[in-house]
Amino acid sequence: MKKFLLAIVAVMCATGVFAQDWSLGGRIGSGFQAVGQYAYNGSDYFEARFGASWIDSGVTADFTIMHNWNVCTMDWTPRAGQWFFDAGVGLNVGGREHYAYVGVAGMARLGFTFNSVPLSLSLDYTPVIGPGIGYGGGHSHAAFRDMGFANVGITCTYNF
């Protein structure tokens, strides 16, 4: 599994060197995830996050894929950079031994892109609506995963 993840990161990095539409970085808050973004239409972009989440009781592997739209940009600080507000929708899956979850994810992000360096810093809220499923010992139990509403993070990306 580690070799597979390393291969994905290497491909994303190699592709990002040759493309102007990639952003790579990390997200910390309700967990820690590696983040890759690909802008394909100027203001629309796909985002993938993979890492660990600790909002459920215990650490879980967590994967999110989203389609995001740039809702608006604001020139509040034109010398320093540009503010932006993005929104998106996607899918979140994750789990650990004897526990899994899946759900629809929404996203609202307020951020800032610096003029002097190719970095973006943002705060996002990504609620996930779906079930948490406990299994093992020959039986399973599914219930609404209310901890999906606690998914908040700060993302920093390098823009190629």
Tell me the structural class.
Answer: mainly beta
- Which range best describes the helical content: under 10%, 10-25%, 25-40%, 40-55%, 55-70% or over 70%? 10-25%
* Average pLDDT number: 89
Main sheet summary: 8 strands, antiparallel, barrel
Overall number of strands: 11
Number of helices: 1
Global shape: elongated
Through-space gap between termini: 27 Å
Which strand order spans the largest sheet, edge to edge or round the barrel?
1-2-3-4-5-6-7-11
Which series of helices and strands comes N to C? HEEEEEEEEEEE
Low-confidence sequence ranges: none
Computed over alpha carbons, the radius of gyration is 17 Å
Percent strand: over 45%
Overview of this structure, please?
- The chain is mainly beta and 160 residues long.
- It contains 1 helix and 11 strands; from the N terminus they run αβββββββββββ.
- Strands 1-2-3-4-5-6-7-11 form an 8-stranded antiparallel β-barrel.
- The longest helix is centred in the first third of the chain and has 17 residues.
- The model has no long low-confidence stretch (mean pLDDT 89).
